[in-house]
Design goal:
By secondary structure, this protein is an alpha/beta fold. The chain folds into two domains: 97 residues, 2-Layer Sandwich (Nucleotidyltransferase, domain 5); 183 residues, Exopolyphosphatase. Domain 2 (Nucleotidyltransferase, domain 5), CATH 3.30.420.150. 38% of the residues lie in helices and 22% in strands. The chain is built from eleven helices and twelve strands. The chain has a seven-stranded mixed β-sheet with strand order 8-7-6-9-12-11-10, sandwiched between helices. A hairpin with a 4-residue loop joins strand 2 and strand 3. The chain is globular, with a radius of gyration of 18 Å.
Amino acid sequence: MKKIIVEVGSTTTKVDIYDGKKIEHLRTICIFFKKSYTKEKGLDNRDIELLIKSVNDLKIITKNIYVCGTSVFRKLDKQQKEEFLKEFKEKTEIEFNIISEKKENELTVVGTTKNVNSKVAVFVGGGGSTEISIYNEKIEEMVNTPIGVMDIMKEYPDLAEDLAKTDLETIKKAVKEKLNIPKQKADILILAGGAHKYFALKSGIGYEKNTLYNDELEPIMMCIENRKKDTMKYYEEISLDEIRKNEEDPNWWYATRAMSAFVLVVAEEIGAKYIVPTDISMVYGLLEENV
């Protein structure tokens, strides 16, 4: 029986379908919950309505739908949380599951480390939170930070313009001041929790075949020096307007320069020699738990 898993983040909502054998990504929906969230009022009603409509539209495919949320949903106070969960259930007839930072990290690590044969770091970055794990046959260290790319975009909105006005080093410094970093080092940094492979394939940055280990979900990699050089190009030379012009969802690219800075800061701080971008999210771990 088909099952749809909807993972709702602070900026992107990922929709995957499982047919009992394989997982297929259906779509990514941009709903900027973190951008419109306020501590006093919580979530924006327009964002909630868009999410509810998007979930109800999926019932055409199957009514077997699991929905979970991360990041900004963890920040809701008790009353806001109760009101949101009640409204979502009433209007969709589906439970909304709020996943803790620790659980999100663990579930994503499951999907990224099936075939690794050495110590790695797994980066799970989003609009409102960042989780980093050091994995060596098991998770040896885990650090979480309740900030993400939308926090940087609030300070530096020019990163979403055709070419960035703020230089990369300034953004890296801002990220480094906010981000908790693991004490342990790792030669390989795996990027997960978002469409990092998609970004690599579409943004114009360089990549090569993953020769570190064999995993069909993690087919590409880049060395750290090339990633540094190409990220600089992504700030100074590569036109975001040109990329967005050919994209079905141009809004997805809004915070990609901020995310690129997060990636470099983590890679440099843990001493990574290689970066492996993936499109792997929590869905793989969730299915292993028979959700």
